Amino acid sequence: MLLDALRADARLAKWLRDLESEGTPRTEAVLPDADELPDVLLDLTVSHEHINELVALRARLAADAEAMTLLARCVGRFVRDMGEIGKGWEPPAFPASTGALGRCFHVYVFIAALPYVRAYHRERGVPEDVSRRTLADLGRHVAVHHRRLGTPGLLFPWWIALHFHGELFQLGRLQFQRTRLGQRTGRAVAAAGLGQGPGDPCLSLHITDFRGPLSASACDRSLALAGDFFARHYPDERYEIAVCHSWLLDTQLKRYLPTDSNIVRFQDRFELVYENKTPDDGVPVGFVFGDPDLPPEKLPRRNSVERAVGDHLRAGGHWYGGQGWFAL
What is the pLDDT of residues 204-241, one digit of tens each? Predict the structure, then answer.
């Protein structure tokens, strides 16, 4: 059974104990039945090829009383403080020892949480198309899991939790996360005389895969959509600063890419605050090639970004994350 495998892992056994000790009431968690589930999955852009497996796993989950109790407890913890910045929940990924049900368990948690998420969106007046495209990132991340490991599942359930907690929205090409300025970036913003500083609200920009080019026009459109969206649906929150923490802000990219490339033009929007000193090569390799563990000598060179990432590593270099900001 699923919980036996979780208890056999010391880290997850502690996670189970902590979840139980929080005393979060078990929220009603109803999964769509086998007839309804395919439509729900397709609405979340889960690929057709995974539907039959996920419907079959749903039956296994429903037959496991302990797992269903855990599901209800997870949903209760997840929807608590819905929409409040920084009060979401970060569920851990389950190890391979938990099998197919373990790697897909959080998919069912998010599906069971859907009624609460949609109710929150309606309360805030979030347009149906924005709600649909935001929650559809679940299917994209199932595709990311499949591209890397060949099966449905979620590599980073904690990331999807932001979408389903009302903290992140897909607006055109970019995703925008409601968050707060950290100390380093906040001090840089304050020094620029913009009347904002550490702890003040800001929007963190995220760039998704499977969404086409990161063109300047697409970014401009996203920023315009965000300006209208947050003013309309979060009028009590003041968003004047955009931030980004990404390998795409590594200035070494300018050695390899032309000045009018999409990535360089994206970089040029930001005031760089900080560049990490610890190499993080797996992030760009995973983002560009689908698998962070691919050796540099096997990386293809089919386009300018692939050549930049791979050639730099083959030359003995490393990639680093960067942090930047700009005024909206």
Answer: 999 998 899 999 999 999 999 999 999 999 999 999 99
Question: Could you tell me whether strands 271-275 and 241-246 are parallel, antiparallel, or unpaired per DSSP bridges?
Answer: unpaired
**Minimal CA–CA distance to 72: which of 108, 101, 18, 33?**
108
Burial of 228 per CB tally in 10 Å (0-12, 13-18, 19+): exposed
pLDDT digits (tens, 9 = 90+) for 12-40: 999 999 888 887 666 778 899 999 999 99
Cα 224 from chain centroid (whole Å): 22
Nearest Cα neighbor of 260 from 222, 216, 218 is: 216
Backbone angles phi, psi at 327, to 5 degrees: -80, 135
Task: Report the C-alpha gap between 171 and 166 in whole angstroms.
Answer: 13
Q: Which of 111, 106, 94 is nearest to 38 (CA)?
A: 111
CB 67 within 8 A of CB 109: no
Query: Are the C-beta atoms of residues 91 and 157 closer than 8 Å to each other?
Result: yes
Residues listed for the chain: 328
Question: What six digits make up the tokens of 237?
Answer: 């929150």
Contact (Cβ atoms closer than 8 angstroms) between residue 123 and residue 116:
no
Q: Is the pTM of this model over 0.90?
A: yes
